[in-house]
Amino acid sequence: MYQFKDRKEIKEFIAAEVLTSAEVIDVLDISRARLSQMIKDGKIIPIKKTKRDSLFLKVEIEEKKVEMSELRKKYRPYE
Question: Given this model, what pLDDT does residue 79 score?
C-alpha cells in the first residue's frame, strides 16, 4: 500500500505512475477498440473508470507491454 505525507506527494505519484486511456493506447500501440476489448476481457483492469476515461497504473501497463511484445514475437515472427 502506498502512503503519502501530503497532497504534493500524491500529485507527483499520480503524474508519474498513473496513465489515462489515451496514454495506454500510445504505450501499447493499440486502438481504442482493442483497449475496450482488453478491459472487457479482464486483460487490463483500470484503477478507476468514469464515463469518459479510465485510469491505469503505469507499472501494470508496462508489464502488459512486455507480455504483448513476447506474444507478438511468438505469433507474428514475420514482423
Answer: 66
* Close Cβ partners of 8 (under 8 Å, ≥ 6 residues apart): none
Domains of the chain: 7-75 (1.10.1660)
SS3 (DSSP) at 76: coil
Residues lower than pLDDT 70 in the chain: 79
Burial 30-47 (b: 16+ CB within 10 A, else e): beeeebeebbeeeebebe
Q: What pTM, to 2 d.p., does this model score? A: 0.85
